[in-house]
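[User] I wish I could look at a protein chain and see how it folds. I have put the entry right below:
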Amino acid sequence: MELLYKNLTNYEHIVFDWNGTLLSDVELVLAILNENLTKHKLDTKTVQEFREHFSFPIKDFYLKLGMKNELFEHYQKRYHELYDSQYKSSELYPGTLELIQRLHQTGKKLSILSAAKQEHLHEAVEHFGLRPYMEHVYGVSNNIAEGKSQRGRELLDKVSIAKEKTILVGDTLYDAEVAKFLNIDVLLVADGHQSYEQLLKAKCPILPSRYGSSLY
């Protein structure tokens, strides 16, 4: 985690993605996905396969797995029912709380920008003990992970810190797209929902692991 910290010290406002960046929920997401795949007689995925193929928009990802377009809303409803009832069994990545506290103590403004639904996100951030350190917590208004870029714009408008002093830390290509839209720097960590090989497509700074070496 020291490597991640060092990459953030030159910024005044650090915006963190939530799932896969602060919250280690890849195994839970995969377990729920595989339940859906099994139910519909589709091939399940390993963690490595999931990280190699996970993508946004979520609907397109489901369709690539062979799920039926007309059942997308059903898939999503079932996913969120299971996730919302089980996410508290996940944990923050080891060292995350200490990292956030250290950045906060050095005067950094910290925020969370997520494609998770706003109500759920607030509850989750509170549950895992990070709310006292966060300037703002911004989620979206839907369950299909859309609208993150616009919410990011609203977040930056709230914080009177220059864009060149702001960075977004995430774990997916979607985060790189959001940062580009917002015209701010981005740092991706490759031990979340997408593999290092996937993240290379973004052509931006990437840490193979927040702990300093590749996890796979």
About this structure: The chain has a mean pLDDT of 93. The chain has two domains: 2-24+92-207, 26-89. The two ends are 17 Å apart (CA to CA).
